[in-house]
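Lecture notes, part 5. Sequence design as translation. It can be helpful to think of inverse folding as translation between two languages: the language of shapes and the language of residues. The source text, in structure tokens, appears below.
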């Protein structure tokens, strides 16, 4: 069974669970636009987070699948 197949099965199972909420975050989106993604995370948790510290933790140089969108 491939990773993609297993991931899709997990998504289907999770979506059928009324007691589980999931926020899907794309790593490339975090690297390319950390402010927007951190806002999404804060809204999901419904709490005040130290967004400045979270932004500092994003290091584009560690992103292995680099593409033109990442500077």
């Amino acid at each position: 069974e491939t990773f993609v197949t297993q991931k899709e099965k997990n998504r289907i199972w999770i979506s059928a669970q009324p007691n589980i909420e999931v926020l899907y975050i794309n790593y490339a989106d975090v690297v390319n636009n950390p402010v927007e993604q951190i806002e999404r995370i804060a809204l999901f948790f419904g709490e005040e987070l130290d967004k400045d510290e979270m932004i500092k933790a994003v290091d584009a140089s560690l992103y292995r699948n680099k593409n033109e969108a990442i500077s």
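The translated text above is only one of many valid answers, since several sequences can fold into similar shapes. The chain is about 55% helix and 0% strand.
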